[in-house]
Design brief:
It contains three helices and no strands. The chain is an all-alpha fold. It has a domain of 58 residues. Helix 1 crosses helix 2.
């Protein structure tokens, strides 16, 4: 089974923190740093697994999941998807 990045992936969290520190700890850039970290790790995983370059993985920013979101909203979306209805708007 292939590992997919999620909002609690420690690799993304650690990489985003390093990016934030490297950029001088700027305010209000956490979403950008998280997205950059997720992209970099997805690309590394793709290179290490021999997957085709440029093809987005399931949870990559290009596929729509780039940043962590609030747990209640995420649980509500997942429940709606599980029940086959999409009455909960997705963040985007």
């Amino acid at each position: 089974m292939e590992h997919t990045l999620g909002p609690d992936d420690p690799r993304v969290r650690d990489r985003a923190y390093r990016i934030w520190e490297d950029e001088g700890r700027p305010d209000h850039r956490h979403l950008d740093h998280w997205a950059q970290a997720a992209r970099e790790i997805e690309e590394e995983d793709r290179r290490n697994s021999g997957g085709p370059p440029g093809r987005p993985h399931v949870n990559s920013p290009e596929a729509g999941l780039a940043v962590p979101d609030d747990a209640a909203a995420r649980n509500q979306r997942e429940a709606a998807e599980h029940l086959g209805r999409s009455s909960v708007p997705s963040e985007g």
